[in-house]
Amino acid sequence: MSDHKLLVTPWSNTACTFQTLNTENKLGNSRYTITKNQVQRYAPGNQAPDRDSSQVNNKGTRQMLYVSGADLNALTDALNKQQTLYIVSYGSFSGTQIGVSKAQGSTAALIVERCSLRPQDGYHPFDFVMDDPGPGKVIGAHLGHAIIGNTIKY
Predict the structure, then answer these.
(1) Could you give the strand order of the β-sheet that contains 30-34, starting from the edge strand earlier in sequence?
(2) Exposed end of the chain (fewer CB within 10 Å): N or C?
(3) pLDDT digit string (tens) for 25-44?
(4) Phi/psi of residue 132, each to 5°?
(5) What is the rounded CA–CA span in Å between residue 45 and residue 58?
(6) Across residues 68-79, what is the average pLDDT?
(7) Mean pLDDT, to the nearest integer, of 126-149?
(8) CB distance 136 to 128 below 8 Å
């Protein structure tokens, strides 16, 4: 894999809507509306007594990436441990890729090798803010349930 660099400038999200499959309770699937710089999430599953009800309706200026199931465990582990994460870009024979790293530097190991900029069936939405304290640094990340493919609309 080529060396990679931190992304300094947020990109425009792919405008779309989709649902994710709530597997934690029977209160309904989450619904997302994505614009070029905002993420709006309605998550009825957070109405459960053991969940944070302030997260039922969530809207803000955020970046959006989509993570495959193959990369899910490493990203979930890093988020649960509240590790600092960085969004990086790197080149390959097929073009520029976007990934997630736990460290700065061009040789830092990636925990997510390929994020998608568009929703895909079975991928997990990963929304966050890229904050000023360090180019590419992830702040306030949220990782959602798997996307239901036939609900994706552009």
Answers:
(1) 16-20, 30-34, 38-42, 57-61
(2) C
(3) 999 999 999 999 999 999 99
(4) -70, -25
(5) 13
(6) 92
(7) 87
(8) no
Per-residue DSSP letter, 143: E
Round to whole Å and give the CA distance between 152 and 40.
15
Task: Give the residue numbers spanning the domain of 30.
Answer: 4-151
41-46: long-range pairs with CB below 8 Å, 24+: 41/127, 41/142, 41/144
Tens digit of pLDDT for each residue in 87-122?
Answer: 888 766 555 678 898 877 666 788 898 899 999 999
Residue positions counted in the chain:
154
Distance (Å, whole) CA 105 – CA 127: 23
Number of domains forming the structure of the chain:
1
pLDDT score at 134 = 64
Query: How many other CB atoms are found less than 10 A from the CB of residue 12?
Result: 11
- CB of 36 within 8 A of CB of 64? no
Place of tokens 């990086």: 88
Report how far residue 142's alpha carbon sits from residue 154's, in angstroms, rounded to the nearest whole number: 22
| pTM score over 0.85 | yes
